[in-house]
Design a protein that fits this description.
Blueprint lengths: L6 H31 L4 H24 L7 H29 L4 H24 L2
């Protein structure tokens, strides 16, 4: 049933998660600054933080996780960012549900939403962007 799972896939997923952790720190930091200091609406702040993290994650995943040598870097970045944008919608829906439906605190909800989005982002990028 899980014949597609290899040690290489697991290793790439762990590296992807490590990159994602650095992106999460960036995401949380920028979201916090936008929401708490600049007073931008919380879901807009979330989108801004997510966008900065996605850009950082692209370059780190290109170099370290997937060792991409694709000379069409702008196209590859566009694919990665498109997947990240879909991930942003997944992230925002999950964040909305956790905050408004399950009454979970905003930053804990954001952490859960990132977990949900990570699974989408990894497999979509593994199978499409860096295939």
């Amino acid at each position: 049933m899980f014949d597609f799972i290899s040690s290489d896939l697991i290793y790439k997923f762990l590296k992807f998660c490590a990159v994602g952790f650095s992106g999460m720190i960036l995401d949380f930091g920028i979201t916090y600054i936008c929401k708490e200091k600049i007073k931008i609406q919380k879901f807009v702040s979330n989108a801004i933080g997510f966008s900065f993290a996605a850009t950082s994650n692209y370059f780190l995943n290109r170099l370290w996780t997937f060792y991409s040598q694709n000379p069409k870097m702008l196209i590859e970045f566009g694919q990665f960012f498109a997947i990240s944008t879909i991930g942003l919608f997944i992230n925002t829906i999950a964040l909305y549900l956790f905050v408004n439906k399950f009454k979970t605190k905003f930053y804990l909800s954001k952490l859960f939403a990132i977990g949900v989005t990570t699974i989408w982002n990894f497999f979509a990028n593994y199978l499409y962007t860096f295939a």
